[in-house]
Design a protein that fits this description.
Layout (H helix, E strand, L loop, with lengths): L57 H6 L4 E5 L16 E2 L6 H9 L9 E5 L1 H15 L12
Parallel strand pairs: 1-2, 1-3
């Protein structure tokens, strides 16, 4: 049987890479309690991302689902037709990141089995960045200028 020797002691302590500063004090809150439960995913939707180049057919593929509802952040899908020849369904008036957030949590806007299509994520990313810059403050309370 082989025993390992403990590592040799360090000759001097390593300096901290960050200057020592008092740690922020977290607000006291009552401890949460937890329980064990079955994790089945029943009554929850699936999240799928279709990623490909512009014009490769992502929106066309999504339009094949008769339950698709588009949040069209550009007008790329307005000419699409569903398999029965009818236009795709969409939520008009969504123009900002906050509009997208409001639509996603609006009671009764979506039904079980609907498929939400955000077209395009690139535009959503641009709107989200503008929203963050307009609404988020730095640690001093000043407006941020970039993310």
């Amino acid at each position: 049987m082989t025993t390992l020797a403990p590592p040799p002691p360090r000759s001097k302590p390593r300096p901290s890479p960050v200057a020592a500063s008092p740690a922020p004090v977290a607000a006291a809150r009552p401890a949460r309690t937890f329980a064990v439960a079955d994790w089945s995913g029943d009554n929850e939707g699936q999240k799928t991302i279709i990623y490909s180049g512009s014009g490769d057919g992502k929106s066309t593929l999504a339009s094949l689902n008769p339950r698709s509802i588009f949040i069209g952040l550009d007008d790329g899908a307005r000419l699409l037709r569903r398999p029965d020849g009818s236009p795709v369904r969409f939520i008009p008036g969504v123009e900002t990141y906050q509009d997208v957030r409001d639509a996603l949590v609006q009671p009764g806007l979506f039904n079980a089995g609907d498929m939400l299509v955000i077209d395009t994520i690139t535009r959503l990313e641009q709107l989200a960045e503008a929203h963050l810059i307009a609404t988020v403050k730095d640690e001093r309370g000043n407006a941020v200028t970039s993310i």
